[in-house]
Amino acid sequence: MLLDFKACAPVFSSFWFPYCCFRRLPRMSLAAYCVICCRRIRTSAPPPQSTASWRDIRNIIKFTGSLILGGSLFLTYEVLALKKSLTLDTQVVEREKMKSYIYLHTVSLDKRENYGITYQARKELHKAVRKILATSAKILRGPFADPFSTADVEDHECAVWLLLRQSQSGDRTARLQAVQEMSQTHHWHDYQYRIIAQACDLRTLIGLARSKESDLRFFLPPPPLPSLKEDTCIEEELRQLLASLPQTELDECIQYFTSLALNESSQSLAAQKGGLWCFGGNGLPYAESFGEVPSATVEMFCLEALVKHSEIPTHCDEIEANGGLQLLQRLYQLHKDCPKIQRNIMRIIGNMALNEHLHSTIVRSGWVSILAEAMKSPRIMEASHAARTLANLDRETTREKYQDGVYVLHPQYRTRSDSTRRRFVSCGGVRPRGLLFYFFTSVNHQEISEAVEIHVCAFYFMQTWLARDCPALRIISVEYDTSLSDWRTRCPMERKSIAFRSNELLRKLRAAGVGDRPVIWVSHSMGGLLVKKMLLEASKKPEMSTVINNTRGIIFYSVPHHGSHLAEYSVNIRYLLFPSLEVKELSKDSPALKTLQNDFLEFAKDRNFQVLNFVETLPTYIGSMIKLHVVPVESADLGIGDLIPVDVDHLNICKPKKKDAFLYQRTLQFICETLAKDLED
Questions:
Q1: What are the pLDDT digits (tens) for 272-318?
Q2: Is the pTM of this model over 0.85?
Q3: Which residues contact residue 249 at a Cβ distance below 8 angstroms, ignoring those fewer than 6 apart?
Q4: 54 φ, ψ to 5°?
Q5: 524: helix, coil or strand?
């Protein structure tokens, strides 16, 4: 191969010497030649880019190292976070257990353990807890008791136990303050409410039930009811309870109700066992239908009899001893959709609550939790019956006792001023059974019951509007049974005149504290006649003098001072209606009514009572065929005070539809003006 050396000099200049050597030493090996070339390359001058390349390599190493280190840290963090999220927190489990159970710390019986290192550690812990409790007691301004020196509780539990201890203090003001703070607490856990429910005493539990803002978790569910006996039913249990009560030395009405209930129960049981009429042992189906009595009817007869028996203190003891509280509770739970049955059961419990020695038994049977729930009911009658029973149970803030037929509309709950006695309005309402409602038409019992409920709510505005406008008042409602005809009377042996009823109601109202403070009487229809008779009777009795001295005014809503056309109408067809004694006394020619009017008019002028009269101007529909002006204007004129006609009928004269209605605004104005001086004092 021929090469032009000059042309290739720039290329092969670096290899010239080896080439020459190769030419001179043809026998030199290829390995030796490679060694010479490598040495030549190493000893030759480095290219100018070598320094820059090493700098780039170092930068690459730094960047790569930082990236590897950061990635390692990130992966480590993610792994640890994932591990933490997958780890079960045992404290959560313990807290969930605490919500369902109340744990008591046990102490070992081993003396060596108690006086060893464990004992010393616990002793130091108790000292620390004691300091915390003492500090909390100072903040709450309450006394610190020695029994808490050995308490071993968490910090957030201190308030619970301090309030419990304060609620059992010997200081009444401290007890009331503790109950009020409990009722206003809404941030506790469920188990903390259960601690209070299990550890509080009778007074605290009743106080919480009468506190408006109390949580229902303060009240444990009623204890399990005993099972019914074999081959028996609740009707038979009621019958046995009623038969176990004393049957001697009773008035005629109690004997009548008892015998009626027992007879109806016997008919019902006989019908269930094969009918009342049997021929050769084969009962006829139609005979069974004739003899069978509905279970709800039998239960109502028994309950009405028990209501009468519960008015006797010794019979209340018998009802409690024979398991009546549990039986009534079972019946109450079974008939949640029957207000009438529930109302009679509440009446029985309320009457039993008048006996203080039965309070602990009533509480232990679980009735307080039922009453606390009923207090929050939107139904006025249910809430009023529950409020009456709880007020009779509450001897901490209530001196008065509310007998059957007397109910507190406001305030139904404890208030902050319970330690100071307030003025009140006594509202004399009438709750007739059948009076002016569907009497002349053929209607079922449900329609009559609904009509009665409407009339009971006649003074609903006093519980709502008046309670808000005059919160310092105590509003009491009075109910009593009356009838238009003796065909509808509840007790055939009962012939109650206005004089008899007035003395009975006066005794009940005096027991409720009426007369201790200024009073305004508010009455409708026949209730106004009872108010007049009560005041006249009270003026004759020295022990009732406070009722007269504290009476400030009277409001009459369509009261027949001079008689009623309804009474005349009833008397004219007496052979059909057989009018009751009350209706006979309402006739214009009644001597008793004239004497009552003349005596009260002179008495009211002498005492300078403030009087306001309202009267209807529209006729009232009785049933679907009869239209009657029950109380005309001339009959509603007492002779003193303003007489204001209102374009409504007899039923709506005491039921203003709106708060800004003239009927309510004029009533409110009269109350405020009459009690202005007393409220200032």
A1: 444 433 333 333 333 333 344 455 678 888 998 999 999 999 999 99
A2: no
A3: none
A4: -65, -35
A5: strand
